[in-house]
Specification:
This protein has 274 residues and is of the alpha/beta class. It has a single domain, classed as Rossmann fold (3-Layer(aba) Sandwich), CATH 3.40.50.1820. It contains seven helices and eight strands. The radius of gyration is 18 Å and the shape is globular.
Length: 274
C-alpha cells in the first residue's frame, strides 16, 4: 500500500486529501482496478475526527478498496457551505482524471460520511445528481460521479430539535443557505443508493435524521438499506478496540461493529466491489 498526501485547488483555496492506494498483486496474474471510497470524517464541523480517518481507511482497504480521506471545510471565518460541496466535487473530479496507472475503477466511487461528514455526503448526493443544483452551487464545472453513499450516524437534518447542532449560531456558521439544512429535501430520483447505520440511543444526533433521509429515498424509489442498532453512543467509528478512546469502554459495541461487514455485503449486492 502507498499512502500519499495531496493538495487540491478549488476557486479560492487549497484543501487536503490523503490517498491509501492498494498495490497490484503479482499472484493475480493480471492488473486489477479497485473501487475507491472517499471518507468524510465527523467532528461537528470544528475538526476532523482521526478515529474516523485512518482506522476506517485501513478497514476498507482490507476489503480490496482504495481509500481517500477528504479534509473538507470547517467552521471558520466563512460558513462550511457551499465551499465543502465544491471540495467534494473537486475530489470526485480529481479521482475521475487520475491516470490508468492508479488502477481505480472510476465507475465505483463511493462516498462515506460519518456524523457531520455524513451531512456533506447526504447533501452532495442530492445536489450532484440534479443539473439545476449543480449549476446553483457552481459544481457543474467538475466531472465524475459517485456510484453510492455510506452514512454512519449521520447528521442529515440540522433543524431537528434536541439534535446537533440545536444552536442557531452554529447553524449559521455551517450554512447561511437554509435549503442545505435538510438534505432529504435535496434528494431526487437520480440520487445514488445509500447504506445507513446508526444506534437508537445516539445522544447527539437524533435517529429522525437517518429515518427521514431513508424514507425520502424509499419514496423516490432509490435503493436504500438502513440498520439501526438497539443501543450505542454517538461516534462509534469501528466500535472496536482500534477506535475505542482510552479507558472508555462505551466506544466498544460488538453488535454495531458488524456494520462494515453489512456494508460490504450491500456493496456486493449493488455490484460495487471488486
Amino acid at each position: 500500500m502507498k499512502i500519499e498526501d495531496y493538495s487540491l485547488n478549488i476557486s479560492d483555496h487549497q484543501f487536503k486529501v490523503k490517498g491509501y492506494w492498494l498495490d497490484q498483486v503479482d499472484d493475480f496474474g493480471r492488473t486489477v482496478d479497485y473501487p475507491v471510497v472517499v471518507i468524510c470524517p465527523g467532528g461537528g464541523f470544528t475538526f476532523h475526527s482521526e478515529r474516523e480517518e485512518e482506522p476506517l481507511a485501513l478497514r476498507f482497504s482490507s476489503f480490496a478498496m482504495h481509500v481517500v480521506v477528504l479534509e473538507y471545510n470547517l467552521i471558520g471565518k466563512n460558513p462550511v457551505y457551499p465551499t465543502a460541496l465544491e471540495e467534494m466535487a473537486k475530489t470526485v473530479d480529481w479521482l475521475s482524471k487520475l491516470p490508468e496507472s492508479m488502477h481505480i475503477d472510476k465507475s465505483k466511487i463511493i462516498l462515506a460520511g460519518f456524523s457531520a461528514g455524513g451531512h456533506l455526503v447526504a447533501a452532495y448526493n442530492g445536489i450532484a445528481t440534479n443539473p439545476t443544483l449543480r449549476k446553483k452551487y457552481q459544481i457543474d464545472r467538475y466531472n465524475g460521479q459517485h456510484a453510492a453513499i455510506i452514512l454512519g450516524y449521520p447528521v442529515t437534518d440540522m433543524t431537528v430539535k434536541g439534535s446537533f447542532p440545536d444552536d442557531d449560531k452554529i447553524l449559521q456558521q455551517i450554512s447561511l443557505d437554509k435549503s442545505l439544512w435538510k438534505t432529504q429535501d435535496l434528494l431526487n430520483k437520480n440520487s445514488k443508493p445509500a447504506f445507513i447505520w446508526l444506534t437508537r440511543t445516539d445522544e447527539l444526533v437524533n435517529v429522525t435524521n437517518s429515518l427521514t433521509y431513508a424514507d425520502k429515498m424509499a419514496q423516490l424509489g432509490i435503493p436504500v438499506e438502513l440498520h439501526m442498532y438497539g443501543s450505542g453512543i454517538h461516534g462509534l467509528a469501528l466500535a472496536t478496540y482500534v477506535t475505542k478512546k482510552p479507558g472508555k469502554n462505551k466506544y466498544l459495541n460488538q453488535r454495531a461493529a458488524g456494520w462494515i461487514d453489512l456494508v460490504m455485503s450491500w456493496l456486493e449486492m449493488m455490484d460495487l466491489v471488486l
